[in-house]
Amino acid sequence: MYRGIKGIVFPGPEEPGEVAELGEFITAMEKERGVDPEITELVLMLESAKGFWNAALLTGASRG
Length: 64
Description:
With 64 residues, the chain is of the alpha+beta class. It is 42% helix and 16% strand. It has three helices and two strands, in the order E-H-E-H-H. Strands 1-2 form a two-stranded parallel ribbon. The longest helix has 17 residues, at 16-32. The protein is elongated and about 35 Å long. The model has no long low-confidence stretch (mean pLDDT 90).
């Protein structure tokens, strides 16, 4: 959320709400710090069967 940060890795998400909440936080930090909106990438590291099962929902849970 500072200039120069390209992305954030989120290990182990299982529910879309987790991803949406983090996406909203990232958006708020970008705005607060004067970074262009939607410039910070959110990389999901799926680590559980539930995460893989919900993969399509997880990837659609945040902006971008």
